[in-house]
Design a protein that fits this description.
This protein has 707 residues and is α/β, with parallel strands linked by helices. Among the domains are: 75 residues, DNA polymerase, domain 1, CATH 1.10.150; 98 residues, OB fold (Dihydrolipoamide Acetyltransferase, E2P), CATH 2.40.50; 154 residues, P-loop containing nucleotide triphosphate hydrolases (Rossmann fold), CATH 3.40.50; 165 residues, Rossmann fold. It is built from 21 helices and 23 strands. Strand 13, helix 12 and strand 14 form a beta-alpha-beta unit. The relative contact order is 0.09.
């Protein structure tokens, strides 16, 4: 964006970002307060307050060709005008004629309009044509043409339509923006290097800013938008490229030696054949960990693709080199599962694993902390409890963060600070669309697990209506009788009615506690039914989950607390109540809890939703088992801001660019930004001074670009 009024950063001119908008002609103190409601406080803010759409009023229509009910742009001469008052209403009516006929312009309760027009004035009118007694346009947009060469901004051209607030009209907004451009546009200097502009056929910044507000043609408007989108992506990618360069150029971290007796023993006990994707990810991690520079890698894979074994490999590698490893998970349930799985497979190798969560208290907690500080704990599994100030590591070599998007940026930084430049491995079971990955994690190296382990039978998904409920219950009972288990997922913990946005009425949703009671007493009295949700204390939660893992509990009623980390290969059925209440990626995560064994499994979505958006989500889910396809669909349906169900930590604000529509621009801007930073990491070249200032002003202090 524009920094120092578009001037060289050493210029003494006051930057546009520092000039209050009230000094723009036509604004003043009162209107400045109105504009503040649109987050416009400075000249730069107003300059980058872009139209939300445009109306093409450039095609003139002769009066004899206008059609009632349609919009028209007319050029003519004021013939007569008059004001009529009566019954508390003022009517100003003006006759306008051209060589083909006469039309009337009418304004209600705007008596001051009579002072604006005189007979003989040349005018342009734009509005909807109506017929009462006469053919007329009510409250039209207009321009009075004093000079045929004079630029018009309200009619007779492609006209911008801005986001507004109460107290300012489209006409008023267009006028102050035009005044701003008249005064400041020529002061704006280009910040993009000429070779980047030329390679990508981008217009100059002055030209783009003018044509984004007052385009002289549709082609020029599109070119202007391309430039603005490129700028926004480019600035962000420069910041990410610099961050990545800083990580790669950081002080030496932990250099691991690959191989050795312990690694050989670990490979020998892996109970299945690794996929090619897992082998490649392990090779990537080995190369990173062998380097003296800290690893900063994202391991991305669909549910069930085998991320845990890859992370285990990295943890064993750091232990084999005499360092400690840590794995931080977002929930106690997931941490407990990681602890049990790793302890079962790694303790026979002599690796000592401890768990540290908020439910580990008193003497057990103190002993765990002592083991960590003294180095007797080789691997630590835990939740946020790990990053407490009183938890100290002896020699942390590797930190793994599972479901890392569920942690805030500061929490990820706190874990890293538990060691001296430890290697960092981030994991996510939520496949991330390429555009979002380039925006969120553009500074990370990426390994993708896009294969499923051999022998895995994909689950089948069905969307059924309420009339099938009894049949579903019978099917669940049959599966349980055959020795399998089932999940039943509800959107609420306790009963309540939620306002439906689509219908504007109260919507009855299924609640886990009520469904649990009904299943236990009425529907499945012959089966053992369990209940788990977020309000249970950790001890009760773990007791229920242990019973479910052992098979003692045959049906588990839950909320989305089981979304990640529940790995029970004996589950063959998942029934999701009110699936329209969940996001698409969240539904896919839930579905990923089944189909983890060698039996066929079934995910049943029970919904009579009338929401068209919800129907699209449910159809998308049953149409594919690929998390990557699901992620792309989810991004298009919900947008990046809500991709993870809640606003993603660290997602930079994109005001103009669209991650779905502007994929090509993002890829081009990323390449140009990384190439530029590769050649000039600190942007010391005088020609890069403005870019450096932009990035400093926009991203310095933003934790998502410092972590």
């Amino acid at each position: 964006m524009i920094t120092q009024a578009g001037q060289n950063i050493n210029s003494k001119k006051e930057p546009l970002s520092a000039i209050p908008v009230r000094y723009v002609k036509g604004v003043g103190p009162a209107r400045a307060e109105i504009l503040a409601r649109l987050d416009i406080g400075t000249v730069e803010d107003l300059l980058y307050h872009f139209p939300r759409r445009y109306e093409d009023r450039s095609r003139f229509c002769t009066i004899n060709k206008v059609k009632v009910g349609e919009y028209a742009t007319i050029k003519g001469e004021v013939l007569t005008a008059g004001l009529r008052r009566g019954k508390g209403m003022a009517l100003f009516k003006m006759a306008v004629g051209d060589e083909t006929g006469v039309i009337y312009a009418v304004w209600f309760n705007q008596p001051y309009m009579q002072k604006m027009f005189r007979s003989g004035d040349k005018v342009v009118l734009y509005g909807k044509v109506e017929r009462y007694k006469d053919i007329q346009i009510t409250n039209p947009e207009f321009e009075i043409i004093k000079d045929e060469a004079e630029e018009m901004i309200h009619a007779g051209r492609i006209v911008p339509i801005y986001p507004l607030t109460e107290g300012i009209s489209q006409r008023g907004m267009r006028s102050v923006v035009k005044n701003l451009l008249d005064k400041y546009l020529e002061e704006i200097e280009e910040f993009l290097p000429q070779d980047i502009k030329k390679r990508n056929d981008l217009p100059g910044l002055k030209q783009a800013l003018f044509n984004i507000h007052f385009p002289e043609s549709e082609n020029l408007r599109k070119a202007a938008y391309e430039r603005i989108v490129f700028d926004e992506f480019f600035e962000l990618q420069v910041a990410l490229a610099q961050r990545k360069a800083r990580v790669k150029g950081a002080d030496d971290g932990v250099a691991h030696k690959v191989g050795g007796e312990l690694m050989g023993s670990f490979k020998a006990v892996i109970p299945f054949k690794l996929t090619d994707a897992q082998k490649k990810a392990i090779t990537d991690i080995e190369n990173d960990m062998a380097s003296t520079k800290p690893m900063n890698r994202l391991l991305e894979g669909d549910v069930g693709s085998g991320k845990t074994i890859v992370a285990s490999y990295a943890l064993v590698l750091t232990v084999s080199n005499g360092y400690q490893g840590v794995l931080m998970a977002p929930t106690e349930i997931l941490a407990q599962q990681h602890f049990m799985n790793l302890n079962r497979s790694l303790s026979p190798l002599g690796i000592n694993i401890v768990i540290l969560t908020n439910s580990v208290v008193d003497e057990a907690r103190e002993e765990a902390k002592r083991m960590i500080e003294e180095g007797r704990a080789n691997i630590v599994i835990g939740t946020h409890a790990i990053i407490q100030e009183d938890v100290k590591f002896k020699n942390l070599g590797l930190a793994v963060i599972d479901e890392q998007h569920k942690f805030g940026v500061d929490q990820r930084v706190q874990l890293k600070q538990k060691g001296f430049n430890p290697d960092m491995l981030f994991m996510t079971a939520t496949p991330i669309p390429r555009t979002l990955a380039m925006t969120l994690y553009g500074d990370l190296d990426l390994s993708i697990l896009d294969e499923m382990p051999k022998g895995r039978i994909p689950s089948k998904s069905y969307w059924v209506g309420e009339q099938r409920r009894e049949g579903i219950y019978k099917f669940i009972a049959q599966e349980a009788a055959a020795g399998s288990q089932a999940f039943i997922v509800c959107p609420l913990i306790e009963k309540g009615k939620v306002l439906s946005e689509a219908k504007g009425k109260k919507e009855d949703l299924k609640a886990a506690t009520e469904m649990y009671g009904k299943f236990k007493k009425e529907i499945f009295p012959q089966l053992k039914v369990g209940l788990v949700h977020g309000r249970l204390d950790n001890e009760e939660k773990e007791r229920v989950m242990a019973d479910f893992r052992s098979g003692k509990v045959q049906i588990l009623v839950s909320t989305t607390v089981i979304e990640v980390g529940i790995d029970n290969p004996n589950v063959s059925v998942m029934l999701i109540e009110n699936p329209e209440r969940f996001g698409l990626s969240q539904l896919h995560q839930l579905r990923g809890r089944i189909g983890r064994g060698n039996q066929r499994s079934y995910c049943i979505l029970l919904s009579d939703t009338e929401s068209e958006e919800a129907k699209k989500r449910l159809k998308a889910l049953i149409g594919t088992t690929s998390g990557f396809n699901i992620a792309e669909e989810d991004l298009q349906l919900r947008g990046p801001g809500q991709f993870f169900g809640t606003r993603q930590h660290g997602l930079p604000e994109l005001r103009y660019a669209n991650l779905v529509a502007n994929v090509k621009q993002l890829e081009i801007a990323r390449k140009e930004a990384f190439d530029l930073v590769k050649g000039d990491p600190e942007l010391k070249d005088p020609g890069h001074g403005q870019i450096k200032e932009i990035v400093r002003r926009k991203f310095t202090g933003k934790t998502e670009l410092k972590a």
